[in-house]
């Protein structure tokens, strides 16, 4: 089979995989105007015009880094106008980049643009012109980064972005770039060469020049890569199965935090542990080195609380908790504000907590021994409800104790200690650590003469 026939068959087979009914889908095609994407656009047009019905929408990004970029943009505008193709163009300026990592920033901006257009066009399919050379580069780059097993499998022909409900489709993933040049030459396609691809300013360019381009057509390296990918995919599937099974059974995942069962985590193979952490922390974009550093925390004896980059990691007893940045922000707010309780009434603290202050006449059947019921005197108004602070002490029988030491004695999880609240009277004395311990001061107010108000809370459930 000649290369042109193979290319057209590959494109056709991929399109057939994603067209499952008689509807006419829209395919968003990313076109940079390089040989790869120009070939992809032409081959999709050929398939649409001759065999399978679908619509094409073109996306082009002008990065504004080369004078030729404007020429390329003008070319694709004229081309789409002549072919009656809908076109979206994103034109970037130098100020759109911070300068720290242009390639990575540009990639993110392109993907954001493609996803935005896909949403506007109500399509799930974004076609990219990645080919086998790109795949080999990616595998080598991921090996250099010591990445997860899953990323070592290279690029997929069709990959699904679950949170956006979008598919990235790569019909050329099994095609060498040399074959795309041949296809372009035979069909006299117009394309543009980006001279910056010949520079060695970026690691990926060096990998391309010194590893991929110099070996890909020698010693059947592409066949070796095919075999390597098959083996890696088999291994990857096995790891993913074990990883997902563990996460489903032994991880509690919320929007703001994830809690891992350490007992079951500890018996996993090290590579499964690493892949579990990659999956749990994928939004943090950590490298393998970062993940291995986090893994070492499991070996530290005792309970620990560590700030690592944008997350708080808490190791306590048989659990490891990751608290993410948005939740940390809320904890800062939680500890910094205070509520003044200056009269009888019902005080709604947040979505799930309250404090209610009643006169003694409404004491009824309340048990003062209950940790959520406080018997006190209205002469001590106003009360202040606040987060605990360093140096806070509460009176106990025989003396006083630091609130932090009290929490340790009561084995309050580290992940909950920042949520602890104390109730303070007008003399700035802590009369209760809500839901946990009442001050020994309250013994002075046991009789009816001194006790004339009841303070009721519902914090006990937080620590049961």
Name some characteristics of this structure.
464 residues; alpha+beta; Rossmann fold; Uridine Diphospho-n-acetylenolpyruvylglucosamine Reductase, domain 3; 3 domains; six-stranded mixed sheet; five-stranded antiparallel sheet
Characterization of the model:
With 464 residues, the chain is α+β, with helices and mostly antiparallel strands. It folds into three domains: 3-218, Rossmann fold (3-Layer(aba) Sandwich), CATH 3.40.50; 229-328, Uridine Diphospho-n-acetylenolpyruvylglucosamine Reductase, domain 3 (2-Layer Sandwich), CATH 3.30.465; 338-463, no CATH class. Helix content is 39%, strand content 22%. The protein has 14 helices and 22 strands. It has helices spanning 3-18, 35-50, 68-83, 102-120, 132-145, 177-187, 203-215, 221-250, 262-265, 270-280, 288-296, 325-336, 403-409, 414-417; strands at 26-30, 55-62, 86-91, 125-127, 158-161, 166-169, 251-253, 257-261, 304-308, 311-316, 319-323, 338-341, 345-348, 354-359, 373-376, 383-387, 393-396, 399-402, 421-424, 430-433, 437-438, 453-457. The protein has a six-stranded mixed beta sheet, sandwiched between helices. A hairpin with a 2-residue loop joins strand 9 and strand 10. Helix 1 (3-18) crosses helix 2. The longest helix is centred in the middle third of the chain and has 30 residues, at 221-250. The protein is elongated and about 100 Å long.
């Amino acid at each position: 089979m000649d290369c042109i026939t193979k290319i057209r068959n590959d494109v056709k087979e991929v399109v057939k995989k994603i067209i499952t009914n008689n509807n006419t889908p829209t395919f968003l095609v990313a076109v940079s105007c390089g040989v790869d994407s120009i070939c992809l656009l032409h081959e999709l047009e050929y398939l649409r015009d001759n065999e399978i019905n679908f619509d094409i929408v073109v996306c082009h990004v002008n990065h504004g880094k080369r004078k030729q970029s404007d020429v390329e943009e003008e070319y694709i505008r004229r081309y789409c106008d002549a072919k009656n193709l809908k076109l979206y163009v994103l034109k970037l300026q130098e100020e759109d980049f911070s300068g720290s990592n242009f390639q990575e920033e540009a990639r993110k901006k392109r993907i954001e643009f493609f996803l935005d257009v896909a949403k506007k066009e109500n399509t799930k399919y974004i076609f990219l012109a990645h080919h086998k050379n790109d795949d080999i580069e990616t595998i080598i780059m991921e090996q250099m980064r010591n990445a997860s097993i899953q990323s070592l499998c290279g690029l997929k022909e069709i990959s699904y972005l679950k949170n956006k409900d979008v598919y990235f489709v790569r019909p050329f993933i099994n095609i060498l770039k040399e074959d795309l040049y041949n296809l372009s030459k035979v069909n006299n396609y117009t394309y543009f060469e980006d001279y910056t691809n010949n520079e060695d300013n970026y690691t990926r360019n060096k990998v391309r020049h010194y590893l991929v381009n110099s070996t890909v057509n020698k010693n059947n390296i592409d066949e070796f890569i095919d075999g390597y990918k098959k083996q890696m995919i088999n291994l990857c599937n096995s790891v993913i199965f074990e990883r997902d099974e563990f996460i489903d059974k032994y991880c509690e995942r919320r929007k703001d935090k994830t809690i891992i069962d350490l007992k079951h985590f500890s018996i996993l193979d090290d590579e499964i542990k690493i892949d579990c952490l990659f999956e749990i922390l994928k939004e943090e974009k950590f490298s393998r080195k970062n993940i291995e550093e986090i893994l070492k925390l499991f070996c530290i004896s005792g309970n620990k609380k560590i700030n690592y980059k944008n997350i708080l990691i808490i190791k306590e007893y048989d659990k490891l908790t990751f608290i993410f940045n948005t939740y940390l922000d809320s904890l800062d707010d939680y500890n910094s504000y205070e509520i003044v309780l200056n009269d009888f009434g019902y005080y709604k603290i947040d979505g799930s907590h309250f404090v209610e202050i009643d006169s003694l006449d409404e004491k009824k059947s309340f048990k003062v021994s209950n940790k959520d019921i406080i018997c006190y005197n209205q002469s001590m108004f106003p009360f202040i409800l606040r987060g605990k602070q360093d140096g806070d002490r509460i009176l106990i029988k025989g003396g006083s104790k630091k609130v932090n030491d009290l929490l340790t004695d009561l084995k309050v999880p580290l992940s909950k200690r920042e949520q602890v609240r104390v109730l303070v009277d007008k003399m700035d004395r802590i009369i209760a650590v809500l839901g946990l311990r009442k001050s020994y001061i309250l013994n002075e107010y046991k009789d009816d003469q001194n006790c004339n108000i009841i303070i009721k809370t519902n914090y006990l459930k937080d620590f049961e």
